[in-house]
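Thread title: Can someone regenerate the structure for this chain?

I was given the following input by a collaborator and told the matching structure tokens would be attached. They weren't. Posting the sequence so someone can regenerate them.
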Amino acid sequence: MTARSPHRHLLAPAALLAASALGLAACGGGSGASAGAAGGLAYASDSEPTCLDPNVSPQDVTARLMRNVYDSLVFQDPRGELHPWLATTWKAAPDLKSYTFTLREGVTFHDGTPLTAEAVKATFDRVVDPATKSQYAATLIGPYAGSTVIDDRTVKVSFKKPNAAFLQSASQTFLGITSPKADKRDYCAKPVGSGAYAVAGYVRGDNLTLRRHEPYRWGPSTAPGPAKEPKVTVRFLPEDSVRIGAITSGRAQIAAAVPPKRVAGLGGRVRIVRADLPGGTYSLHLNTSRAPFSDERLRRAFQKAVDTRQLVSAVYADQYKAARGPLGPTTPLYDKALDSRPGHDLAEVDKLLGEAGYTGRDAQGYRTKDGKRLTVLWVFNKQQVREQRDLVAQLVQEQARKAGIELRIENMSTGQWFDARDTGRFDVFDRSWVSGNPDILRSFYASYNHPAKGKVGYNASFAKDSRLDGWLEDALATGDQAERGELYAKVQQEVVDRAYLVPIYVPAAITATSTKVGGLTFDGQASPLLAGVELGK
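Best answer:
Regenerated them for you:
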């Protein structure tokens, strides 16, 4: 999601404990195979969810880990195609205001409760219940009107408006189906799904233990079925050096988020699996609700001042691609016309700043208007930095300085950052978002989705654009993929043209595995499907 501090820190005590525990789990280290034989599969994660319940948490890491715990009605593969899963068949109403699903027989949740239509209804009703405090799933489900239980195996999900995006939404972990009988008060620590693995233990700041769900026989035909390994231990290792050390020493068999600059140096010691992530690119969203970015010329000048090709080369050794718009190229209905758009242009920056009245310069070389320096504020979440976004911030700051724009970066705690976001007290807000659904554009740019105190909203640019609203609503009202593609292309072009954002890079999942590991695959959101992983002997 967003960024942490640009400052580097010594290894925190929790990370030291995690590294130590990982070493114990490996029973002395050695090869990946010997570690797995002693303690099952060990997975080194770069981040830890604040809550394990995907119906509540909006975090990518929650979706990534809980994909192995939760099943969905449908499955989206890496090509974006949808397949049966908990639902064997489905039928959309002609007006796209309802979907009727026929459920698979013989499915049981981890607490032994059988899957019925009532479980689907209870899950979706819980998601939209204000008491659940869902931070993303409630947005993802769209204009939900309710679910009707037709019989134990059949459920009808209805909407107040047409919702062509629902099938893709329903494939995501955030709308995974949960046991209707489980105690939801403990769900942030022990959620109950029907997946190939069940949550068996959780020590915050240290590890998560998953155990094989023995009855599991209902995986989608294009994904792994019953889990091959009886146990998975997820270690939370935010420090890159500790995580890479775990995979190269054999104390872990899979490591997430390999730093791009470490890929070449790993050589043949591990296997590298790389995939560009679908959904929202890592971008800087510019607040149009206040000066200076209420002036489109200044937004466009800032956009043109940023040289993304230099950024991805300097920080990511070109392992990440420069972003050209709000969506990554692997997202269904991505507009390929964005690839040929012109980018960094200091001559255009100079022209735009002049047109906006910033014709003077102060002693430090920053542009001024009526003696006042052009300054913009980037609120930066220092507790959630990943992918070296701290270095990206420093380089963007330097590029802005060369263009005569003072970019002030204010490091904040998570609480301070949320408050700044919800009150619009910022000029620049950074974010990426993994999603295999182009309807994520509605979350980012619909006028009704502005952040506010007491309300979860993701339109961080505070865009209020009637054309965008119309295109986004029209895209939900048609089942014609070509027509939806044209509408989403208009949205993608508009937000770049109006400089509601500065696209920076396309996030990629760079995963390292032991050479003894086989069978690792991913779903359409680039979440690892651990059920298929098998340790060599």
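Residues 257 and 289 are 35 Å apart (CA to CA).
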